[in-house]
Write the structure tokens for this entry.
Amino acid sequence: MSRKDTGAESVASSLIRTAALAPRATAVVEAGEAHDYASLSSDIDRLAALLIARGVRAGDHVGAAVERSYRGIVGMLAILRAGAAYVPLDGGSPAGRLGAMVDVCGIRSVVGTAAALRSLPADLELSRIDSDTADGTAAGLGTPPVFCEPAPEDPAYILHTSGSTGVPKGVVVSHGALSASARSLRGVFGLSSEDRVLSFASMNWDTSGEELYPLLLSGGTLVIDPRATSGSVMGLFTALEAHSVTVIDLPTSFWTEVVDFLDLTGQALPESLRLVVIGGEEVRAGTVRRWCELVPDHVRLVNTYGQTETVLVTHAADIGGSRGRSLTGDAPVPIGAPLPHIRQVLLPAAGPAGGPEPGTGDRVVAELYVGGPSLAMRYQGRPAETAKRFGTFAGADAGRLYRTGDLVASGPDGELAYVGRADRQLKIRGFRIEPEEVERALLRHPGLRLAAVRGVASPAGGTRLVATVVRAAGSRATGSELSAWLTEHLPAHMLPARITFTEALPMLPNGKTDYAMLDNAAEADSPTDAIASEIAAIAGRLLNAPLDVADDFFDGGGDSLLATRLISRIYKAFDVELTFVDVFEQRTPLRIAAQVARYRQAQDGSEH
């Protein structure tokens, strides 16, 4: 395998150089075990050698069984080291979706730990390479392979987003794009070998790359602790303090819950933190002001913007301290200026969204186009969609660009504020959702004739996905039946929080669905120990609807964000720390109250 010398170092090669310069520096901490850079590099090389021995070649697309673990990270990086591109495959996704991803990417092999491989559907026809056995197997391979530096234009990974045609879109990202983004972010975040960054995002979400790749370039430490991702803000704080974490990167929606927790409990942010990065959804000025009143000014708060197609982050704004406190009313919070590697182009917004933005003086709304070395290569197997979103555009003499579909307004300082979408695409808890994909999944159910999916404001802030459907003649389909159907076809973040039935969808004169006229139906109301009654009252306030002690919190409109808020309020009321698992398994105030009582009994017993 030969490669031309381009002079551009890939992230994988940068890691090898870091390991040579500081072999004993800690690269990853997991479950109390520290793995230094020398060990990480050696483990990557052994697994990469095994992959090559099993037939993986430069340019192949190889599945990476998603797992937040040291071995999971080794698996992804070993695929890069072997010259291939990794495609995250999450065993929690529906089998049909995984099968479509495997087919369109031409995946023949998948790498992961034994547990992660078992989570994938058995009928996926893939060669399964167990990374747990790599050390022993590689020892008997004989002469180790010669690893070559990939060219900047070689694919590094393919991440899948929601697709408007009902098929997930695979975004192909090159080594050059990944390296440009990671190096730029290292500077923006001010990362050094002294930093300890928390692994919070799922490994099949591009935010995990924000946590991992800039850090590896800086020689810092990645911290993996399941307490941080239990859904409990207190669990997050416990993990941060235990590992002296200096940097966290949170979805805006979860960061909002952290602000709420600080306000509710009076607790202080862990002292080790110096930088909090947020992104994925629009942030509200009022929440920023609350944060700035509760958190010392020396803790940086950075609002970021980017899309999978533009790789990691393209815009960033410091919004903490005095700047955040100066935000007035519900003024747009800036997403910032373009990072050094980004070319930004603003073109007039088409349709009624264009023109001056209400409440922002004479700032004009424009559609954002992004260029520069960090653009993705294409959508895998979708040339028409690639041509629609990537290329040269009338009015922009800036070379190849990506049309984001986002509407922005530029301030006098040149920083941008997010205004909305030029199409129907939504962001739900940081995930990009195209409602058409959910509608198509619903309409594959034989009991439905029409379906309309849209986003509505959530009581916890942000957006919730809701669906309104029309039954087919003679159908008796129920909401629970449709929810079960969707669970088999869509990942969890694409499931509507509520499904309502109607006799007909409202229509515009052109025959299209009038989404603005869709009725947001209210949840029904409907008694019992004191704890259960109080939890029911707390949950009801979060849902903006009465909740009986025997009612299911999630059937009443609860979602993971509201569950996080419920956990925080229960902690304040009863001094008991629940987890996501507790709430998702118990579900009703009565059963949650029983769990609270069990924890309190255990606490009382431990004190005697």
The longest strand covers residues 401-410.
